[in-house]
Design a protein that fits this description.
The complex is a heterodimer of chains A (about 210) and B (about 650). Chain A has about 210 residues and is mainly alpha-helical. In chain A, about 75% of the residues lie in helices and about 0% in strands. Chain A is built from eight helices and no strands. Chain A is globular. The mean pLDDT of chain A is about 80. By secondary structure, chain B is mainly alpha-helical. Helix content of chain B is about 70%, strand content about 5%. Chain B is built from 22 helices and four strands. In chain B, the strands form two sheets. Chain B has a two-stranded antiparallel sheet. The longest helix of chain B has about 35 residues. Classes of the chains: A mainly alpha (about 210), B mainly alpha (about 650). The interface between A and B is medium-sized, with 18 and 12 residues.
């Protein structure tokens, strides 16, 4: 079951690399949040404990409900264009993603022989980290940087599930808080930037250099 | 014993209260008054309990209970308590002075609240530092101490020299903290503990022993200001507010000495070459420190170089102690470390006295340049007298306290020569000459500043010269301490012996310090002073009888003397500065008047520090130009940086993958 969900996660990454609509990013983020929540709840189907539900609940609230809404609100308020205006062709980007994912999967497969990691969640998590970084590198829009960062963070989450299922809850909650704050700050920053600079692209930020 | 220590805790708590007071009390003047009063109360309580536990303690107290909670974080051994005592002893007059000093700024409408907070933090963290038994607590206190001193230092941050001078201090602190982290991590790795009481290695442990010593020497030595690492002292001291520079020079650099002594407790016995290394470095520090001091025109910079000199003298004592440790000779260790410990106390006292004095002068004249002062003796007779006491003490002239500690170190030289024999007498003789040279130059230097600043006529018009009651009080406390330790050193020697017996040499070992006939020395001093008194009274008597003849000083045949026709600081020191133009980078720029009817002429002299100007600064510049070569990697776009991160992650992943 975990593997199926992880593969779904990977598919969402592919969708992310070919879509050209900003809205789609938000939907993907929402879906990934849902997948992660399910992944976290899965082990507790057999041994139910109320305490263990804290993390999935928080995750759900933050990643599925709050952050997508917030980003949508920013897009609406600031009237950000709906197309993503990529710096390289979508197809090239897809190739890049496929290439890196292949290498990661092969590497994880080899790694799994010597260590006790679960190949597919591990590799998916790693891929998400890389795709997140690639999104940040090859997209100009600041709002997509936020999305890229969130994808990266989801990857780390998945990674945590794959490497050690008993990563302390406090650390995961701490990470969630971290993400929450970062997105919040980025939103504020975008609001401020929009009032001083006209564009929402990182290239415009270069002018702020002292 | 436990009771007095609980009292110490209360003292720390009381000293921390002012932070709340500063936040609550609105009026600047009231906030300052409350802060200083509470601080003083805490310090006095702390000092009395420190002294009583130092006197009553018979062994190191490691674990004790505080309010029912067992505690292992603090350590109340004699060495820590001794330094704690020094800190509190100096902090009391400094705090008294601080009240009057900050009042000047309050009258000028400058906000002093943050400075007060930093001062409180500095005092408390320094006191906790010397009691820390836990390396982590030590490092935390170390950082708080350094940073609060830095933040206090930039009080007048609108001045350019303040910003640049404090920056050097800041950099120095980072380097030191970095080295200390490595030092304690290595110690932890070796001993599997964070507690000072568990740290112990002998020289059999091989390379790690030497690495640890080097880390300690560089880190603590930089803080203390030994010569290749002294660059921050003459920059940071002049620009700091006087309160901070007095504390910095009196106490904070002593924490470096404290660190070195602790290192010795962790790592002993020391190999002999280490003792020689410390001795040579200290000798160079002492000689160059006083030499550079001689060439300075800025009073605070001059005093900063004198700190280098005195740290050198303390270091000489430590070096002798190391040599004694290598030969397992108790008398040598006792005299070396004893001299160092006592000189630490003495230097803390007279250096803060002199710094406070210089602060008073600066506040009245608005300049730190010695060349613009003069004739102050006619303005404040008692102030000059107190400053003179400090000067005599720092020069090591009997009968004041500087002499006592230097005497112990001289004694250490002779004892080493006597016990170790072989070629040692010659080496020790050279050291004696070196230390004597330092003493001579120190006398010259303080003759210079006292005569130029206080005697003669005023070079620049002095509008007013006021010394407030608080300033007199703090100067008075410090100078009376100088006199007391000079005339009656026995109790202080007793405490130093106690410190040595609890952690340096085996207990109950006969102390070479106590073998010196101190009573005899006191008697001689008293006799000399009585003699001077008798002569003075006789002179007064004769004066009454025959009257006093006064006439102007002979003006070398010049008519119409003005205030510019007197000895200046540069001309006074010129002969000595001329000895070596390479060691002291000494430039003179003379424009002689040429025509028969002279129109214009000028004279300038500049002295720079050899190590500073020829080695350190070019080195830093080289480093900075090297680093700036990777500037081409700097972009305005964040995406490039993310791409770099991705590349690095990939490389690491590949390496990790191949590793597995």
């Amino acid at each position: 079951m975990e593997n199926v969900l992880s593969i779904l996660f990977c598919l969402s990454l592919f969708y992310l690399s070919v879509t050209s609509r900003v809205k789609a990013y938000v939907t993907v983020l929402q879906m990934q949040g849902l997948l992660l929540t399910v992944l976290l709840v899965l082990p507790f189907v057999k041994h139910f404990s109320l305490y263990a539900l804290i993390l999935p609940t928080t995750l759900f609230i933050i990643k599925v409900v709050f952050i997508p809404r917030y980003i949508n609100k920013i897009i609406r308020d600031l009237d950000i264009k709906r197309v993503i205006e990529p710096t390289i062709q979508q197809f090239t980007f897809l190739l890049l993603v496929i290439f890196s994912m292949t290498i990661i999967f092969i590497a994880s497969n080899i790694l799994s022989k010597s260590t006790d990691i679960e190949t597919i969640p591990f590799a998916s998590g790693f891929s998400a980290v890389v795709v997140g970084i690639l999104v940040i590198i090859f997209r100009k829009k600041l709002i997509l940087h936020v999305a890229g960062f969130l994808v990266l963070e989801n990857g780390i989450f998945l990674f945590g599930i794959a490497v050690a299922s008993e990563l302390p809850v406090m650390i995961e909650i701490g990470m969630l808080l971290d993400v929450f704050v970062v997105v919040f700050l980025m939103g504020i920053a975008l609001n401020r930037i929009s009032s001083t600079l006209s564009g929402f692209e990182v290239t415009a930020l270069g002018r702020l250099k002292d | 014993m436990n009771d007095t220590i609980v009292l110490l805790y209360y003292a720390f708590l009381i000293q921390s209260i002012p932070i709340i007071a500063i936040a609550v009390v609105q009026d600047n003047r009231k906030a300052s008054a409350v802060t200083h009063l509470v601080l003083l109360a805490g310090l006095i309580l702390g000092f009395s309990s420190t002294v009583s536990s130092l006197v009553s303690s018979n062994s190191t107290l490691l674990s004790f209970t505080l309010w029912g909670i067992p505690n292992q974080v603090f350590r109340f051994d004699s060495l820590g308590l001794y330094f704690l005592g020094i800190i509190q002893l100096v902090a009391i007059p400094t705090t008294i002075y601080s009240y009057s000093y900050l009042n000047h700024y309050i009258s000028n409408g400058k906000s002093i609240r943050s400075t007060l907070v930093f001062y409180v933090l500095l005092l408390v963290s320094t006191q906790v530092l010397v009691l820390a038994n836990d390396a982590i607590l030590f490092l935390i206190c170390w950082e708080v101490m350094s940073m609060s001193a830095y933040l206090g230092m930039i009080f007048e941050k609108e001045k350019r020299e303040v910003r640049s001078g404090s920056f050097y201090y800041f950099i120095m602190n980072h380097i030191v903290a970095f080295l200390l982290f490595i030092f304690f991590l290595l110690l932890h790795h070796q001993t599997n503990s964070w507690h000072f009481s568990d740290f112990h290695l002998t020289s059999d442990s091989g390379a790690i022993f030497i690495i640890l010593y080097f880390l300690s020497l560089v880190a603590f030595g930089t803080k203390a200001g030994f010569i290749p690492f002294h660059f921050w002292l003459p920059r940071a001291h002049p620009i700091a507010p006087t309160v901070f520079s007095a504390f910095l020079s009196g106490i904070i650099i002593k924490t470096g000495i404290y660190g070195l002594l602790r290192t010795f407790q962790f790592l002993h016995p020391t190999p002999e070459w280490l003792g020689w290394l410390v001795l040579v470095i200290s000798m160079i520090s002492a000689i160059l420190g006083v030499w550079y001091a001689l060439a300075q025109h800025d009073i605070k910079k001059l005093l900063a170089y004198h700190s280098v000199e005195n740290i050198g003298i303390i270091g000489i004592g430590i070096g002798i102690g190391f040599i004694g440790s290598a030969y397992h000779s108790i008398p040598i260790q006792v005299l070396g470390f004893g001299g160092a410990l006592l000189h630490t106390l003495n230097h803390a006292i007279f250096k803060s006295l002199l710094f406070i004095g210089s602060g008073v002068i600066y506040q009245n004249l608005g300049t730190r340049n010695i060349e613009q002062m003069g004739g102050l003796v006619h303005r404040g007779k008692y102030f000059v007298m107190l400053f003179l006491i400090g000067s005599v003490a720092i020069s090591g002239i009997p009968p004041l306290n500087g002499f006592i500690s230097e005497f112990i170190i001289y004694n250490g030289f002779f004892t080493t020569a006597k016990i170790l024999n072989n070629y040692y007498p010659i080496l020790m003789l050279i050291s004696v000459v070196g230390l004597a040279f330092v003493g001579g130059l120190a006398v010259a230097c303080f003759t210079k500043i006292n005569s130029i600043m206080f005697l003669g006529t005023e070079r620049k018009e002095v509008k007013q010269f006021q010394v407030s009651f608080y300033e007199y009080l703090s100067l008075g406390i410090l100078s009376s301490l100088c006199v007391i330790i000079g005339f009656y050193p026995q109790p202080f020697i007793g405490i130093v012996t106690k410190v040595l017996n609890h952690g340096f040499v085996p207990e109950n070992a006969s102390s070479a310090l106590l073998n010196i006939n101190w009573m005899f020395i006191s008697l001689i001093f008293i006799a000399v002073v009585l003699g001077i008194l008798v002569v003075y009274i006789w002179k007064r008597f004769m004066q009454e009888k025959y009257g006093r003849r006064t006439s102007p000083a002979w003006g070398c045949g010049y008519e119409r003397l003005n205030s510019r026709m007197q000895y200046t600081a540069s001309s006074f020191a010129d002969e000595l500065n001329e000895i070596s133009k390479t060691v002291l980078v000494y430039h003179k720029n003379i424009k002689k008047p040429k025509q028969i009817f002279p129109t214009q002429g000028s004279f300038e002299s500049h002295a720079q520090d050899l190590i500073d100007s020829k080695i350190l600064l070019p080195g830093f510049r080289k480093l900075s130009s090297l680093i700036s070569r990777i500037e081409f990697l700097s972009y305005t776009d964040i995406r490039y940086y993310i791409a770099f991160i991705l590349v690095i992650i990939t490389i690491y992943s590949v390496i990790a993958f191949l590793w597995v």
